[in-house]
Amino acid sequence: MNRTRIRRRSAAILASATAMAVLPSVTAVAAPAQAQPCVQKVAVVNNAGFVLSWAATARTGEQSAPTDEYPINQTRVIDLSTASWPEGTDVRPYVDAVGGTKEFGSSYVSYCDNGQTATYTVTGTTFDYSVTLLT
Questions:
Q1: Distance (Å, rounded) from C-alpha 20 to C-alpha 18?
Q2: May I ask which residue range the UniProt record assigns to the signal sequence (predicted)?
Q3: Residue 21 φ then ψ, to 5°
């Protein structure tokens, strides 16, 4: 009697394994990752050898209103809640060196209405500079 039960269970397990082997495999597709950190404000510190202004720019190319032009050792902050973007929008600064080139920030951050601030620093000279997210 025990042998019959064992044989039935073995047959059921084998049938189950066979059925699983013939099922098509399904591969999960990851959703686009949201940029980190998630912040409400973006600050850009001018540690470069020139005057600059900047605007927050979304992946879609939409931009916030730009800051005023400001010199070395000063910072400007844009509160993303004043822009028309929904929470979860990825943004980064787009810096305009007065008399020079324009450069994007090194990486995106995501907009969340949480009071947090991401800070970027600008270093270099008018035609050769970087905009780096501080960690």
A1: 5
A2: 1-30
A3: -70, -30
How far is 129 from 11, CA to CA, in rounded Å?
70
Assigned fold of 38-133: Immunoglobulin-like (2.60.40)
Q: From CA 105, how far away is CA 48, in angstroms rounded?
A: 14
Q: Are 94 and 59 in contact (CB under 8 A)?
A: no
- Confidence tier at 36 by pLDDT (50, 70, 90): confident
Burial class of 13 by CB neighbour count within 10 A (0 to 12, 13 to 18, 19+): exposed
Q: Over the stretch 82-135, which tens digit does the pLDDT of each residue have?
A: 988 999 999 999 999 999 999 999 999 999 999 999 999 999 999 999 999 997
Domain limits of the chain?
38-133
Residue that the structure tokens 């591969």 belong to: 27
Pair 60, 88: CB distance under 8 Å:
no
